[in-house]
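In line with agreed milestones, work has continued on tokenised descriptions of protein folds. One protein thus recorded appears below exactly as we store it:

>
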Amino acid sequence: MIRAIYSDGVLRPLKPLDLKENEEVQLIIITRDDAALAKIQREAFAKITSERHSGLPDLSVNHDKYLYEKGDE
């Protein structure tokens, strides 16, 4: 993953890249908010799959609820 800052219409990598001058690349943009959501989802998925049996009798029916809904904060 390459981290960059967007400023004045240009993406500026935070570290040097091993690319040739004018080399074309393809990018997938993940904003900080998207990255935070992905982290929460990975942690939730790991939590419910870390044991052989999750203890959640409705997991197969309500897996989206367990993955995407926030808990009590």
About this structure: The two ends are 30 Å apart (CA to CA). Residues 25 and 58 are 44 Å apart (CA to CA). Residues 4-68 form one domain. The chain has one domain: 4-68.
